[in-house]
Amino acid sequence: MINFKLGLVVVAAFACMQASNGEFLRRNGRDLMYGSNKIFLSGANIAWNSYGYDFGNGNYAGSGPTLEQWIRQIALAGGNVLRIWIHVEGESTPQFDNDGYVTAPDGQGTLISDLSRFLDVAQENDVFIIPVLWNGALIRNDRYKNLIWDDSKLQSYIDNALVPIVRALSNKPALAAWEIMNEPEGSILIEGNSNPCYDTSKMGQYGAGWTNTYIPMERMLRFVNKQIGAIKRTDNKVLVTVGSWSEHPQSDAFDDTFNFYKDSCLVGAGGEAQGTIDFYQIHTYSWEGNWNVHSPFRVTAGSYNLDKPVVIGEFAQVCAAGESVEALWNYAYNEGYSGAWSWQYNLDNGHCQDSQDAQNRGMQTIRSNSHNGLIRVPIN
């Protein structure tokens, strides 16, 4: 009887070892890889159920069942990734003191366990997760703004929130990448500068700076670089990205674009040698029925002349110059991109937002493809 029980323990231990093979999403040149396989990340943005209040401070008890159901629905449609927002504008998390310094991931101590549960459910359904820390498309909270302006306050966030979160979740295979910020370009100051990495005058011609928050690009790049550096010192295998509102800030290939997020610009602004992104992420929507001339749905991924993978991080059939959702997913898959993430899976019915049914059809279109990257990927 004792030997039988010992045998069960050994079998159980072996099963646990088998449950995690030590694989994590990684980059190889211009490709995303999982194990020995090239991967195409096909999926959706959630991006929230309750804007800024999905994780931490006990909020997951309300949002979690809905978020977990959406994971299952995306998986059933053949998707293998979702992008979700965490702090957003800093209204609920992280925890700030009265002087604007960060003291903890959240006030009630549930943010890490919330994210851990979310990642575990994602793994059970073979869905990768891209958590987005901050939103740059809208910045209304002064405590959040001051993390960008004040290095000491940013360091308090890194030390007391970011590093503990990253460390605690570093063993989660479903964690595909951290995203520092959604669309920083919305909050930048439009100005000329002798350093091209900080000269936003050209980008201003195409609509950047719409929030009137007036943050110089040097400060924004420093904010990004410092956090990436801290993440990679804590978890040197995890990927990191930034989501841009268009192709204009993420390539040097065309007259109307400039790559602000190349290694030299990020390191030059923040000084963190490890603080560089691992793949580019471009958002794209048609305007007045037309695509930008260099939109991802008008050029191949290789046209951007980038040395890292390129993902189409936001798009929608309802703002796609009349193209079908099936055509969009097929184009992204066949023209060299490493992923396509539709906007967005929640039920807000916002501008340029597809229905869940439309997004499911898009994912279903390519769910069995493998010639330009696997989509059906067991995460273990």
From TrEMBL:
InterPro entries: GH
Organism (species): Orchesella dallaii
Domain of life of the organism encoding this protein: Eukaryota
Record-linked Gene3D superfamilies: Glycosidases
Keywords assigned by UniProt, alphabetized: Signal
Region forming the signal peptide: 1-22
Protein known as: Mannan endo-1,4-beta-mannosidase
Tagged with keyword Metal-binding: no
